[in-house]
Amino acid sequence: MTEKLWYASPMLTSCEAEVISSEERDGKYLLRLDRTVIFPAGGGQPSDMGSIGEAKIIEAIEDGNEVIHVTDRALPVGARVTARLDVPRRLDHSEQHTGEHILSGLAAKLFGAKNVGFHMAEDYSTLDLDVCLDADSLALLEREANAAVRRNVPVTCEIMDREKFDSITIRKKSEVKSDEIRVVFIGGGEVDSCTCCGTHCASSGEVGFIRIADSQKYKGGTRIWFSAGGRAVNEANGMTRELKTIAKSFSTSCEELPAAIKKQSDELANLKRELKSRTQALCRLIAEANTDEAPVMMMEGFGANDVKLLTDSLIDSGARVALVFGRRGSAVSYRAVRKQGEKIPMNDIALAVNALKNGKGGGSPDFAQGAVPSPLTEEELDTLRDYIKRRIKTQRV
Which of 85, 104, 125 is the last residue of a domain? Predict the structure, then answer.
């Protein structure tokens, strides 16, 4: 059995220990110590890292009452060694885990929400609640969480026996088989109280800052993306730098940026409407000048929407079948459409295009669309014109 020193003394960063066993597996080494300060992965929290003597810890996992330290080299059984934490990693994990407790405890008090899931990754953390929270509720939760941080209330761990555990009321009682049960209190339970095996800060003030980054509906409740401590500060600083860069590109201040963005968005919307109107007029002119019953065209500067406008205009002007290709940038799109009453299936036209130009696309008898990897040559356009006209002629017979 490994003595888990973080359980009762989470502030320890190193300890002297004896190597109990050492096993090589797939180029890695599995070490067991008689005691350790290294927290193994569990409860949604990744494992600590650090070193054992000269060996680097890759991860730590729990196996019953034992902690297995996965390392990059072997150590002799019976050796006396020093196990050392990667302190910045432990601090980050403790900040995230304490932040999760604060959010979970206050979500329960404010909204009657239950924590039904917690996951901490290297660059983000998520908290799943069983109730749907809107933007105003999330803003309130974030404000109250940071108010609890500023109050700097103590975070304490109490290891109690089964009799005492069964007699107390806390936010969350996990299924624990051991007779010694660890309960974490924040602010003596004012902020949170629950069973937990993880590592935490010594006080809420050490968390520094809690930031709710995003949320979405999840399994009938809410999934929250959050960060705490150094992570939250770094994210907020990064967003501020990006905001200043964007504001500079608009020649305005961060405070005036929303108004500047709205102004530009409105201008772009007006320009898009004007461009569509002009494109429709151009398509009508092209269609009116066309006398072919089955026009096949290659249009430079036309996107997929423009291609649709032109094929529709060609049909309105009397074409029986219209096939138009448009290139904007490197993308070449196409659309084929038939006049009402025509029998040539447009998905057959798409098959012909795809076979000729290694394209992708399809559709229905009435219209088809897709894309090809490169513009069509005049010879290729003539091939498709001849094919469509033969199909029209066949339909007439």
Answer: 85
* pLDDT tens column, 30-41: 999 999 999 998
Q: Determine the Cα angle at 287 with ends 281 and 289, to 5°.
A: 105
User: Are 116 and 144 in a shared domain?
Assistant: yes
Q: What residues make up the domain containing 54?
A: 3-85
Q: Select from 333, 326, 342, 332 the least CA-distant residue to 294.
A: 342
Sheet (strand 155-161) strand order:
155-161, 180-186, 192-195
Of 55, 85, 115, the position where a domain reaches its end is 85
Q: Which CATH number belongs to the domain containing residue 217 in this structure?
A: 3.30.980.10
Q: What are phi and psi of 39, to 5 degrees?
A: -85, 125
DSSP at 65: T
pTM: 0.75
- Model confidence pLDDT, tens digit, residues 146-179: 999 999 999 998 888 888 988 888 998 877 777 7
Here the tokens at position 356 are 């000729």
Instruction: Classify 56 in phi/psi space as left (phi over 0), alpha (psi -120 to 50) or beta.
Output: beta
165/280 same-domain check = no
Query: What total number of domains does the chain contain?
Result: 3
Note whether residue 246 is domain-resident: no
Contact criterion met (CB below 8 Å) for 322 and 311 = yes
Least confident of 23-32, 89-98, 169-178: 169-178
